[in-house]
## 1
Amino acid sequence: MTPILEARGLASGYGAGLVLRGVDLAIRPGEAIGLMGRNGMGKTTLIRTLMGQVPARGGHVLIDGADATAEAPFRRARRGIAVVPEGRGVFGTLSVMENLRLAARPGADGRVDWPLDRVMALFPRLAERSGHRGDQLSGGEQQMLSIGRALMTSPRLLVLDEATEGLAPLMRDAIWDTIRAVRQAGIATLVVDRTVAAVLSLVDRADILVKGSLAWSGPPERLQADPETMHRHLGV
Ligand SMILES: Nc1ncnc2c1ncn2[C@@H]1O[C@H](COP(=O)(O)OP(=O)(O)OP(=O)(O)O)[C@@H](O)[C@H]1O
């Protein structure tokens, strides 16, 4: 199956420093991938380079097998890739409903897989607070809203960067349940999260970045059976 999104020998960085040093990674339709690695190894930079927010300095980004390395970020997003960014990206002065409506657009082939009522059904908590302003929501509710906004674009691939960071345990569980539901709906997911056990319980494959290249890739069971690798590359 042709990957939705692929990095081939991808290199990028900031200023004089190189962060990614030739990353190969592919996400196929319906796959759930855990992008893992210790702090500062380049996970967020990889997401930003895949989406075009950080320019590639070498290698290629492919979307559906076609070179997209020079494509603008909004064009990549229109091909059905939605990112829930670290830090959430909710409009604080707009209501929950307005935040969702503003994000709405049809998916890559014109389909609307996630109309407002389906998003509201996934997040009853947001439905109850539909008139509240973004900045009146708790951190977990803002995270739900951010995921809801991403779903309003009917993505084929949802990228989640630190979606559970800073949330209380119950709220974390609610976010993991949501990611599971998104997955079951057939959407591919690329998940970056510090909660290693939760990520491994969810994904089909773990890809571990070490110093800007892919150091390990395989099924979560194989990683869990290898405490040496878990400790060396993930610090657990
Ligand atoms: N805007 C920026 N300008 C300069 N350097 C940056 C910038 N963003 C990240 N870096 C540096 O790039 C390296 C990789 O950071 P990145 O955020 O991609 O790592 P990460 O694996 O996502 O880690 P974390 O879990 O800490 O976010 C780090 O050394 C970081 O300091």
Note: The chain has one domain: 5-234.
## 2
Amino acid sequence: MKENESRIPVTIVTGYLGAGKTTFLNHLLKNTDEKVAVIVNEFGDIGIDDQILEKTEEEIIEINSGCICCNVRKDLIDTLSMLAISRKEKMIEFDRVVIETTGLADPAPVVQTFLMDKEMIEDFVIDSVCALIDAKHISNHLDQKGEALSQIAFADMILLNKTDLVSNDHLTWLIKRLEKINPKAVTYLCENSQIELEKVLGIYSFNLQEKVEVTPDLLINDHHSHDDEISSLSLQEHRALDLRKLNLWVSFLVQMQGERLYRYKGVLNIEGIEKRFVFQGVHMLFAGDELGPWGSDPRMSELVFIGKNLNKQKLEEQFRRCV
Ligand SMILES: Nc1nc2c(ncn2[C@@H]2O[C@H](COP(=O)(O)OP(=O)(O)OP(=O)(O)O)[C@@H](O)[C@H]2O)c(=O)[nH]1
């Protein structure tokens, strides 16, 4: 913690869809001694990350149905105000706020939230903007320009993740490419988002001057828009799903559309499986695993797809056939 700093430190975790942000958050929550208030923002209408995050003592607040970098930014400010007031009133206790942005968020407007609003400036201080990067898929995402590029350009720390999925030569090439985009950021290599927390928390690497160099209108203009071709589809189903059919469907789907399926994830109610089943993928790589028991929650499948030019009607029809 910074000396003589009474404001609440904020860590902004950014990175493209599927890069490893939630995995990082789980690692952080499990290993830190600090009490953390977590704000998770998801692009789809249904929050899946909240279910995947291993529950600890922490406050976890979800902001869904849009990106905190644009249409739900007011929700972010309201949430932060509520946290600051509750802390002052000693209703909740926490040492830090960690914000996990959606994979489609431009971090600049999120950072702006802490620089433009008087209340936010008084109560919060940005510790760092940390970008998780998927070593396997980032080159494709960068070739398409857009948010993946801003996330790297705007980070003060890069966690180059999923190093297990690429060769050393590719890593060396990638590090050079990242350095060209953002020569000032510190880069750490990691697998499953595992990193010593002292490298990430309490380092106060956020430097406003550097960010203004990257985004000259940072303190003036708050307009931001997304690539309209990218959208999300959220599906819910109470009836149990057939795992064999589901596997066949998804295998077919990724073969045919993997390139434009940026992210799909869900918590599923599978016939014959007692526990909740987490299913998730990034482009053509997907996996499923059993999660904890349903407890008192109703057994229900919730699945979110995020991709380019999704044929939503067809996806929904195919999903229902897995019942
Ligand atoms: N092989 C491999 N898989 C990883 C690694 N890190 C994370 N994953 C997997 O990648 C998938 C996406 O990880 P998440 O942590 O959910 O990624 P995210 O950035 O939160 O994704 P969004 O919420 O869609 O933005 C999950 O299936 C993880 O288990 C890694 O280092 N290697």
Note: Residues 73-88 form the longest helix (16 residues).
## 3
Amino acid sequence: MGFINKLRSRWHEAETLLCVGLDPDPAKFPAHLAGDPDRLFRFCREIADATAQFACAFKPQIAYFSAHAGGEEALARLIAHIHAAHPDVPVILDAKRGDIGSTAEQYVAEAFVRFNADAVTLNPYMGRDSAAPFLAHAKRGCIFLCHTSNPGARDFQELVVDGEPLYQHVARTIASAWNGSGNCALVVGATFPEELRVIRELVGEMPLLVPGVGAQGGDVGAVVRNGRTADGTGLMINSSRGILYASRGEDFAQAAARAARALRDEINRCRKR
Ligand SMILES: O=c1ccn([C@@H]2O[C@H](COP(=O)(O)O)[C@@H](O)[C@H]2O)c(=O)[nH]1
């Protein structure tokens, strides 16, 4: 099953719009993992196993793995573990790739062959030819940065080009011209709920990956109100640090499960309003 259908099944059958972010930072790990050469994998595997039932997707951020010797091998093993143990939950590789076509082909092999991710985040700044090698894989998701969650999102993404802010042009172009295989989605920060509302109007039912709740302070109610589709889905609302570091003790995985369940439930309460 392709990424978009896997995601839709998860929204409807597991009744969750929560994306669990996997951003392992050894400085924040519980003491019993200190010095363990396999700590990135062990920490994330326990988090994934504890939170899978509450997740519509997992989103490992590649930098948290590639920053460490052996980290990319840990990431490959982690994704293989998720596919084997939680086959219904799609994996989004957060790598924000984008380059000329020949290099993009290598990034395609990285995301879809080496790591076997169901979807990958992409930077659309280099234009259509940089996205084409990814778009050709109709069963994999291509999730493009549109309006990011950080304060600097305003620097370029809100510049007015041909009478509209650049982020709106990006949303419109991807929805109308790049989504021929129906495998596109957009990243929109929870910290910009008004822009989220505008993007939802521009892109119809297209899935939106929404980071920025939890540690970055985005409002869950505003995200659901402004970002959901008519059937109350359409969103992958990501939380990473708020789930991963709910406890720094040996009970970290159980605490992560409680945090994931609480956020899943809060999102679902907002969907009913
Ligand atoms: O606009 C963006 C795009 C990506 N991210 C990523 O999402 C998570 C957020 O982590 P939290 O701990 O929940 O704040 C992280 O991997 C970012 O690289 C984003 O925050 N904003």
Note: The chain has a mean pLDDT of 98.
## 4
Amino acid sequence: MATAAAISLSLPPQIRRLPASIAAPLRSISSLHFDSLRSNFSSLRNPNFRVSASSMRIGTPEKISTASFLDRRESGFIHFVKYHGLGNDFILVDNRDSKEPRITPEQAVKLCDRNFGIGADGVIFVMPGVNGTDYTMRIFNSDGSEPEMCGNGVRCFARFIAELENLHGKQSFTVHTGAGLIVPEIQEDGKVKVDMGEPILKASDVPTKLPANKDQAVVKSDLNVDGVIWNVTCVSMGNPHCVTFGNKENQNLTVDELNLAAIGPKFEHHEMFPARTNTEFVEVFSHEHLKMRVWERGAGATLACGTGACAVVVAAVLEGRAGRSCTVELPGGPLDIEWKEEDNHVYMTGPAEVVFYGSVAV
Ligand SMILES: N[C@@H](CCC[C@H](N)C(=O)O)C(=O)O
């Protein structure tokens, strides 16, 4: 990986014209090489090009050359596209030519760094499919660990595929993940609906060491975190989630009041979660409307978590707090989640947007 001193940085004119508050942090991204962007930004045709999760648009590109940008294969460089799903942001890497990720977990940590790298919650690789699936998705968290699945990430993955390949009108494909088969479908409005499969509730499979109290599941159980007794329901969407609506002192959370940075890590590393855990803190507005904040395993506080939103609706149904179809409000925006009775699958619908294109020296 190139060091900060060895990097050249050239921002596209659109970014140079941005207000100082936005342009300055972008200029300080020291490990990027933006030479290709200078020539390519003006010719990108992606109508969703944005510099942040905000609605500010900084260019409506004209002639397309996205594909040629992504096709470039100079040695020593990896070309990437940064996407976000409700502010949960990822570096997407075209890895279709190899079964091994093109960057290591250690490199991923550096690339995800928000001061000395590109800045992201994770790095996602588009890889060849296995067992008859169209593609394989692998992901490294910003701490370099490898989770089984990522809900917001798989929506970004779907939009990235649509940029990389001529899908000939096909809007849905099969993706092999550590959580099994996942099926995203790009809708006409650009949002992505994902069949996230069945939730896993058996305690030992989540995994949690908390004793099962409802069938084989852990539902509204006591979890002692530094002397505070939280009521938790444990759900795996391929990756582990601990969902809480309150504790003994405060049965109904007001999630904006939580000091997430202080309590999140205590859940993540709690001895009851042998594979660590993602934790969702939830406020119930109605049977169809929930609000959550998340502390992610390996990434900390993020603006959204797709698998987390799915786990929240499953937990809310199990605890009798909500119906099977809910809007889940996250700091980065809303997700529509449905846990279908017919097939026991969870369906998630939400956006995925390009943030910027770049190249990085490795
Ligand atoms: N943000 C993701 C989840 C990413 C993986 C998670 N940090 C883990 O380690 O399980 C999502 O949208 O689902």
Note: The chain is about 20% helix and 30% strand.
